[in-house]
């Protein structure tokens, strides 16, 4: 029984460390630092813009990058439905996250819709 508990604890600890690992960060040819980031939204998909440029529709993987002078990377989720609100995440870099999640069930802010 003791060995079973030890094996179970090692298995759980091994799984937990997989989720806690940071993204694979690499230096690019132009001198920036980049990482592939998972971007998702729920319960619906959303259009994603990174620093003002269209990146795609969730769920997706997108390479985020920054330079030595970059203070933050802005990722915006634009809803596909009128009952949902635009979501903005400003990522202060470094570090870059492994995943980004947008909850598209947040209702529009009354102040911004007037």
What does this molecule look like?
This protein is of the alpha+beta class and 114 residues long. The model is unreliable at 4-20 (pLDDT under 50). It is elongated, with a radius of gyration of 18 Å. 16% of the residues are buried. Helices cover 20% and strands 43% of the residues. The chain contains two helices and eight strands, in the order H-E-E-E-E-E-E-E-E-H. The chain has one domain (23-108): Immunoglobulin-like, CATH 2.60.40. The protein has helices spanning 2-20, 110-113, and strands spanning 25-27, 33-42, 46-50, 53-57, 60-66, 72-79, 87-92, 99-103.
What's the helix and strand layout?
Blueprint: H1 2-20, E1 25-27, E2 33-42, E3 46-50, E4 53-57, E5 60-66, E6 72-79, E7 87-92, E8 99-103, H2 110-113
Parallel strand pairs: 2-8
Antiparallel strand pairs: 1-2, 2-5, 3-4, 3-6, 6-7
CATH architecture descriptor text: Sandwich
End-to-end Cα distance: 64 Å
Radius of gyration, CA atoms, in whole angstroms: 18 Å
Percent of residues in helical segments?
10-25%
What global shape is seen?
elongated
CATH class category name: Mainly Beta
Concise account of the structure shown:
This protein has 114 residues and is of the alpha+beta class. 20% of the residues lie in helices and 43% in strands.
């Amino acid at each position: 029984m003791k060995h079973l508990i030890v094996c179970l604890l090692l298995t759980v600890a091994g799984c937990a460390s997989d989720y806690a690992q940071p993204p694979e960060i690499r230096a690019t040819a132009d001198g920036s630092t980049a990482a592939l980031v998972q971007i998702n939204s729920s319960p619906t998909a959303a259009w994603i813009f990174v620093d003002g440029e269209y990146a795609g529709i969730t769920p997706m993987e997108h390479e985020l990058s920054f330079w030595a002078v970059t203070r933050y990377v802005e990722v915006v989720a634009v809803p596909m439905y009128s009952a949902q609100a635009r979501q903005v995440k400003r990522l202060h870099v470094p570090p870059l996250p492994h995943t980004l999640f947008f909850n598209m069930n947040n209702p529009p802010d009354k102040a911004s819709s007037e």
